[in-house]
């Protein structure tokens, strides 16, 4: 039912659509949705902000705004991005209607039907849906626990007969893989792209959601590395730090890319809601973000710990995963002969859902993984969900042994 | 500075861009902006709605929603559109991020680069900007005081070597022309399109803003006429009945067109803000729209009357216009040898701005008109603005006589 079920649907066959329909019923234990938890939204803070807006500002909420964004929000974002080390003064910020619109704008700006886009495999399904709708040819590069496979990336670029328009990556607390690029891997990635003319589209929706203050430095965006030989477009979102319902995102790019992006955005929706931008800006400008993020980190970290604990307790030894250090996701690896989609078909009848591995493969094939999201999960349901899931997987492993023997 | 200045800019030369920059200063008397008046927004009503939302609904404001729209809003819109006689049960509603997004989606769905789109001349600049960004070839058909020129439309369709993808029209309280299609003209238009396979894109942002209850029946949409031989996509907006800052629009179309439109929207911004949809829905569901529209109509009607009165008092007899019966605009006609852009260059230095005629011509040429918007105008400024404008025009007429003689 939610935003990306459509993308999931469009990439899958009738059986999954049916299962999705079943899964939209009541009383489900859902590890599926990649959205924040309803009970964690800063409702009280936004109430306070809204009710103390001066009359003039409140009226402005109802009005059109500039296509590039509400100027005070752009100013607040500058400070926010500067703290991440990003070169805000030499670049321009465009406010977008969610970061998916930023990805859509960049695609519209650079990609014609049949053009090549490079992605990670697995990759964010929302972005894949944008690229597919644009008629792009997606070539995907595997990732490991430290980031994109550099050798595979290099060899892909060398063997392609045309230059890809851009490489799309989500290096921090990857969706769905839950991994974090190491600083070395980020550097190597930039080295491979240097001089190729391939743009890097660096999507960074989760970097504020680290679980351990010591690891904050690992979230440093590649756009802050000062590498002049790679054109980097950096995108971000308020969806994980305020709420997806605001539909607020942004992109930071060179002035040249910004100028055309502004025209493309103009033709998409004229401007992003002033109402949402004004509330979002006050949230930043009144310094409500930092304490709220501290609260969010501890809440999500607690959920991750619970899921990690129960997975360790109940999962058969054949199942492996990396414990995430931030973000929303655990990315379970199944034995090669077990398919995520088959597991799903079983668990959904028992009231447990997740997102199947092949959803995140641009070719909709690789199906030996499953994504568990702990973000939108009542804590007390985690154990029961894991028990049902692990029993189903155990049975599948048993059955496959019988079949194989 | 506002949303469509970009579109205006992109269609015009450096000199107009400069003038626009000058015009964004303070203390201007502006007949330019096609936006509602800040002082007329339903701020108090939205305050009440927001502060009485149940906790669960408030949390939902922050969350993702379905790509097609927030289901209770779709339900409320059904009632609203049913009252206009629209066939809501045989069609599907897609909520969009402003009606400009609906136009953008339809364009994306049907138009490839080089494809032909038919428009009125003059036409809404925001739509023209969408069509141009898509690389469409725009062929425009003149309109008169009763609607599109039927003979010209017919002959255009006959002489084109390819079938246009759609015809885009704004039949009710036209922007910029301020006119209203007669029921006969609407019928003739449908007859011409019947059997051609050309889709009709009927954009209806202003139909609730009639000045006289007796004329309400004239706003009847063509999609309500029951003509099966023409595929009609109907678009509408909350921008004029609630506020552009909400970025809420919608399209009503056949299920087939809806399905693809939903996928296109998914790739544009995933979903429209739940926050804005929930507030918008409560505004409709709590029956706050009708009394608010009554208030709006009387306010805009009063402004129109003032502008009409002062134009009659001060304009030289060579200047003609049709008194609008609703909407936001008066469309002045200059003598053929006087250019709207030249008048603008004069008045802007005296602190009065409007939008030049050629802005609304897809070919950016026809410049014998100027658009005066009375919607966003403090009432007490109207007379002074008209005096400055009419004196400038008088002088231009005098000068042209001297030059001609």
UniProtKB/TrEMBL annotation, chains A, B:
Q: Which GO terms describe its molecular function?
A: pyridoxal phosphate binding; transaminase activity
Q: Does the keyword Secreted apply?
A: no
Boundaries of every Aminotransferase class I/classII large domain copy: 48-386
**CC cofactor:** pyridoxal 5'-phosphate
Sorted keywords for this record are: Aminotransferase, Pyridoxal phosphate, Transferase
One Pfam family it belongs to: Aminotran_1_2
Keyword match Iron:
no
Q: Name one GO biological process term.
A: alpha-amino acid metabolic process
Gene3D superfamilies hit by this protein: Aspartate Aminotransferase, domain 1, Type I PLP-dependent aspartate aminotransferase-like (Major domain)
**PANTHER family membership:** AMINOTRANSFERASE, KYNURENINE_ALPHA-AMINOADIPATE AMINOTRANSFERASE, MITOCHONDRIAL
Q: What is the protein named?
A: PLP-dependent aminotransferase family protein
């Amino acid at each position: 039912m939610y935003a990306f079920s459509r993308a999931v649907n469009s990439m899958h066959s009738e059986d999954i659509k049916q299962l999705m329909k079943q899964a939209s019923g009541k009383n489900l234990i859902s590890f599926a949705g990649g959205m924040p938890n309803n009970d964690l939204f800063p409702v009280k803070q936004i109430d306070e902000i809204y009710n103390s807006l001066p009359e003039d500002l409140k009226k402005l909420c109802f009005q059109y705004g500039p296509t590039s964004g509400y100027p005070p929000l752009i100013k607040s974002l500058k400070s926010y991005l500067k703290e991440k080390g990003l070169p805000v003064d030499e670049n321009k910020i465009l406010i977008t209607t969610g970061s998916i619109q930023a990805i859509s704008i960049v695609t519209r700006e650079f990609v014609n039907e049949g053009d090549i886009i490079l992605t990670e495999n697995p990759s964010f399904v929302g972005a894949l849906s944008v690229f597919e709708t644009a008629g792009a040819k997606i070539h995907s590069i595997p990732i490991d626990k430290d980031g994109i496979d550099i050798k595979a990336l290099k060899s892909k670029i060398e063997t392609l007969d045309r230059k890809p328009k851009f490489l799309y990556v989500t290096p921090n607390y990857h969706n769905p893989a839950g991994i974090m690029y190491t600083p070395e891997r980020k550097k190597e990635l930039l080295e491979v792209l240097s001089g190729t003319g391939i743009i890097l589209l660096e999507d960074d929706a989760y970097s504020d959601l680290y679980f351990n203050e010591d690891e904050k430095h690992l979230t440093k965006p590649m756009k802050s590395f000062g590498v002049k030989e790679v054109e980097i477009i950096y995108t971000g979102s308020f969806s994980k730090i305020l709420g997806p319902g605001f539909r607020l995102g942004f992109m930071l790019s060179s002035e040249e890319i910004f100028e055309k992006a502004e025209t493309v955005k103009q033709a998409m929706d004229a401007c992003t809601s002033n109402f949402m931008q004004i509330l979002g800006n006050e949230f930043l400008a009144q310094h409500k973000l930092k304490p709220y993020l501290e609260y969010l980190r501890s809440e999500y970290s607690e959920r991750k710990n619970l899921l990690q604990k129960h997975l360790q307790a109940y999962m058969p030894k054949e199942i492996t995963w990396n414990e995430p250090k931030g973000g929303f996701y655990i990315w379970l690896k199944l034995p090669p002969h077990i398919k995520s989609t088959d597991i799903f078909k079983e668990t959904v009848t028992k009231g447990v859902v997740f997102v199947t591995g092949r959803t995140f493969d641009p070719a909709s094939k690789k199906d030996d993984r499953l994504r568990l999201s702990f973000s939108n999960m009542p804590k007390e349901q985690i154990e029961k969900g894991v028990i049902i899931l692990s029993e189903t997987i155990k049975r599948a492993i048993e059955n496959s042994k019988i079949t194989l023997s």
